[in-house]
Input
Amino acid sequence: MARRISGRSHGDPRNADTRAKVKDDYRPSRDEILRYIAENPDRSGKREIAKAFALRGEDRIWLKDLLRDLQDEGLLNKERKRLTRAGAVPHVAVLDIFGRDDDGMLLAHPNEYTGAGSPPVIAIRISRGAGGPVPGIGDRVLAKTFPTDDPSGPAYTGRVMKIFEKRSEAVLGIFRVLKDGTFRIEPVERRQPELIVDKEFQNGARNGDLVEVEPARASRFGLPRAKVLAVLGSLSSEKAVSMIAIHAHDIPHVFPADVIAEADAVKPATLDHREDWRDLPLVTIDPADAKDHDDAVFAMPDPDEKNPGGVIATVAIADVAAYVHYGTALDREALKRGNSVYFPDRVVPMLPERISNDLCSLREGEDRPAIAVRMTFSAEGRKLRHSFHRVMMKSAAKLAYPQAQAAIDGVPDDKTRPILDNVLKPLWDAYAVLKRGRNARQPLELDLPERKILLKSDGTVDRVIVPARLDAHKLIEEFMIQANVAAAETLEGKKGALVYRIHDAPSLAKQESLREFLQTLSLSLARGAQMRPSQFNGILERVRGADNEALVNEVVLRSQSQAEYSPKNIGHFGLNLRRYAHFTSPIRRYADLIVHRGLIATLGLGPGGLTQQEADRLEEVAALISATERRAMAAERDTVDRLIAAYLAERVNDAFDARISGVTKAGLFVQLPQYGADGFIPVSSLGGDYYIYDETARSLFGERTGKGYQLADRVEVRLIEVAPMAGAMRFEMLTDPKPLPGSKRSFHKAKGRARASQSRSGPRGRRR
Output
């Protein structure tokens, strides 16, 4: 029986009078719980729900069980520590405005929506007061969303916080002049059609130019037409492939004149408000081709007799906040970009070269301002204490990863030999200590090698390599992790504003999907809401060296949530850390710059600290930089696909060793491990049987034979077709289907599901 609450709505958990009137022998109904969560997206954790309904003791246990049931039924999702209605729009979301209703109110859809069915409609509220942004149809905006109670109207209303730069209806393509003198637009997106351009709409474009075109309305016959709006560059020039991704993803890549002028006018920092650390032999260890150096490290044994075997590890990070102040042109541009974007042929930096490669780069032998953290660890790798300092430093050496590793391995060179005993060996000793702490912490340990594309001078692919994973890489990684933890702990402990780097545990739905898949391999994953990385590590250890090792690693990776930024902490699941923030790369990530400013303000380290105005915007800023990070990842991935497709375009009809990287109803995605490239095999080309998709087993299997293909299978394929500028490749399968693990049970279950689906939807298509 649902309780009746007098006074103010139970939607406000701060109403003490309401809570006092609630009788102890009543509990809220399921509908009341769901309505409260929908109406209070900011206060939807278990504790807040219990507080809103005045639940105590056994009632809290009852609430926990009810919330779990609602999640299992798909009515609720858990995001961070908040519960949301299934398919609910986040409280702060990126929206695309698509039209108006009959009353003229703007309507929008979420830019990203993972719920079932069509995305909800959001009515945009326009503030009539001064100063608020006024959007229009076609705009992409950042907005706060609020659920409505009107079943006949939009599901949400939205209040606009920021308008992103307008995008026209233009699309990108490559301008081609055919032998007969006609003009075509070669698509750069996989689903984009080829277009015809009439001579009067050429607009100065030449063969091979990357152009922006406006498609015209499609005619009944032939290809649709388009007109060239702008020429963006020539594909015959260097770096043309990454330019496609830059324009396709709206990545700002040209600094405005006022930003360059502001950067050029900056004066080098002085010793004011700084400790003089220039005699401390900090060193930078980076990739050999690194152009900027934003972190330096040093370590020594702890001289304290009370900490035998302990070490003191020091990390110094470029003091970008000394030069980039809130509200300036430099700062606005850095926030707009959010992060640097790394392509095989170029870097699109967050900050101008004067800042990133000069004043803030910790160059060897030159005075540079930094914010440093000094951390003391016990012999077991447990951090005992830490302290932050604003310093002036001077790098003792600029080292590359292989160079530092070679010195430790007994092959020092002229630069590493003089610092081997007093700098490098203590660093490796400290890493051995920190590694003990990491092993005890047990973060998620996925084994997925990363590939690097090496280019020729003309910007085309030379070869693809898998760089060796050295202890030098792991050392720097662990030092940076510990510095990031120290920054989060300091700001949280002193009630300072910050943006956390958060990573949620896999959702219950993903856990269950993974559990069902593992059962097909006779592997088990324990149930329970409080999953830990060690449980996944146990699975990965059991398949180490087995034929299905790559498969299990891939599926475990896909079960994980995506990391993001937030002013509200839920911890970092993958690293198994309760609090974590990004502090160590302020040259290339705006999130780190916010943390630097927070430390400066909270610890009283001088000018350049976080302002109250900035602190009030952290929710908005966190959403923005999370979006720019996803944008950068997509652009980088697209560029790699295009480069590899162009590289393999001359090898049509060649056979390749491949691994199945995705399974869908429509066919198989395959990856060429040697190149890291992806392509597609349509299910219609598999032949010889009618193939059924088994989502649980990540497989396609034949209805007649029960044999098929599964995610991560090693196969041989033939390259049939390449669209280089779209980054698309089509293959045909050369490897015969095989019996699948657990195929009998999967076969009958999936076949039953397929037959049930076909009986509802009509006769099945032709046999393949």
Summary: The CA atoms of residues 208 and 235 lie 5 Å apart. Residues 1-24, 756-768 have pLDDT under 50 and may be disordered. The first helix runs from residue 16 to 21. The first strand starts at residue 76 and ends at 79.
